[in-house]
């Protein structure tokens, strides 16, 4: 398995920080999310589209 942060190969059974190779890589990744280096795209609805929006549909 390869670490998504440092790309080093490691044995998954030996890592307490899956899917990362170490706690250090895990913390770096978390810091990037919290610092907004990573983001998930969001789409805004126009006011007209928002009126008919039903999240349970």
Write out key terms for the chains shown.
mainly alpha; 57 residues
Report on the architecture of this protein.
The protein is mainly alpha-helical and 57 residues long. It has 2 helices and no strands. The model has no long low-confidence stretch (mean pLDDT 85).
Q: What layout of secondary structure does this protein have?
A:
Layout: H1 23-34, H2 47-51
As a whole number of angstroms, the C-alpha radius of gyration is 18 Å
Helix content: 25-40%
Number of helices: 2
Q: Distance N terminus to C terminus? A: 40 Å
Q: Which sequence of SSEs, written as H and E, runs from N to C?
A: HH
Q: Which residues sit in consecutive blocks of at least 5 with pLDDT less than 50?
A: none
